[in-house]
Amino acid sequence: MVIVDLDKMILLDTYNKIIEDTILEKYNTPEGKFESVEIVLADFDGVTFHVFTNPNAKNILNVSLSMKCYGELRKHGADDVMQKQYGAYLTSPEVGYDVTLQLDLAQPPADKAAVARNFALLKRNALAAPFYKVFADIEQKKPAGPLIEIAYRDEEAFYIKAESDRVIVVFSVQFRDQDDVVFAKVFLQEFQDARKTMNGVPSVAYSQKEPPMELKSVRNLRVGANNGFVSFVLFANHISGTKKEKSIDSIQTFRNYLHYHIKCSKAYMHTRMRNRVRLFLQILNRAKSEIQSTEKRTITGRTFRRADEPETNVGGFDDEYNI
């Protein structure tokens, strides 16, 4: 039996820590002593970043982003979000990448930490574009548009369906290991049970093999024993005001959040199993009877045995005495 305590579960950050630390470190470099840097790093969901300086101007730092689904995000306002968030930092995309930001380290802004954090949120802001669009349509009471499909991973996607007063977000999740399906059911059942004691939280539903009704019209939908579908229903209080940004953060990181804690739970169970085996071995070792030595020696160091003990010295050597 696996027990899940939602209050003690770790939430993953939405920003890239390496990008933030790199920019802050470069901002603290004395002027005129800028050094070249080139970092290629990976993030969740197959995202790749390229952080590098120009060869002829080491004070110019570039951050490029490559996303499998950026073409789909562009259809739902990703370029507008990039322009709103980064403005003058945008430059022509690097070859092989979708977005490139450029920063002049010789002209630091007033709030360096805020700029570094915003650059580190590049993936998050790009992936937030369809959510901003759907949330805005509901707030403006526009007619619901078609189902939005974002294939952000090779074999997985998430879907956004707007209704008059709510947004339904469905994740298709593929589990590589059959055990992960069991762990996922336990986690998501805890989500459903927690909703009974908490007010104003999204509705959560989980189905395996059979997709929810919202996805009946989706073509080439992957279904099978290792495929699950998680549905979130976001109401008006989740998609407006200050809660809008937090809802987007939580939805974006859900898939990684789920798999992260599945792996942690499996590691914890394996540790408990190893500790239990170690305890059993200690009990078995204590249960072994120790063979007591019956050898006796005289004051001169010669051995002797009692006459009623079994014969061990077949040859009858002179260094033994019978008593």
How do the helices and strands line up, and which of them pair or pack?
Layout: H1 17-27, E1 38-42, E2 48-54, E3 57-66, H2 70-75, H3 78-86, E4 90-91, E5 99-104, H4 112-120, H5 122-127, H6 129-139, E6 148-150, E7 157-162, E8 166-174, H7 178-195, E9 203-208, E10 227-235, H8 243-252, H9 254-287, E11 296-297, E12 303-305, E13 321-322
Parallel strand pairs: 12-13
Antiparallel strand pairs: 1-2, 2-3, 3-5, 4-5, 6-7, 7-8, 8-10, 9-10, 11-12
Helix pairs in contact: 1-4, 7-9
Helix content: 25-40%
User: What value does the average pLDDT take?
Assistant: 85
Tally the beta strands: 13
| Largest beta-sheet characterization | 5 strands, antiparallel
Determine the CATH topology of the largest domain: Yope Regulator, Chain: A
Indicate how many domains the architecture comprises: 2
Q: Overall 3D geometry?
A: flat
Number of helices: 9
Low-confidence blocks of residues: 1-7
Overall radius of gyration: 32 Å
CATH class of the largest domain: Alpha Beta
Name the strands of the widest sheet in spatial order. Answer: 1-2-3-5-4
CATH second-level architecture of the largest domain: 2-Layer Sandwich
Give me the oligomer status: single chain
SSE order, as H and E?
HEEEHHEEHHHEEEHEEHHEEE
Distance between the termini: 65 Å
Fraction of residues in β-strands: 15-25%
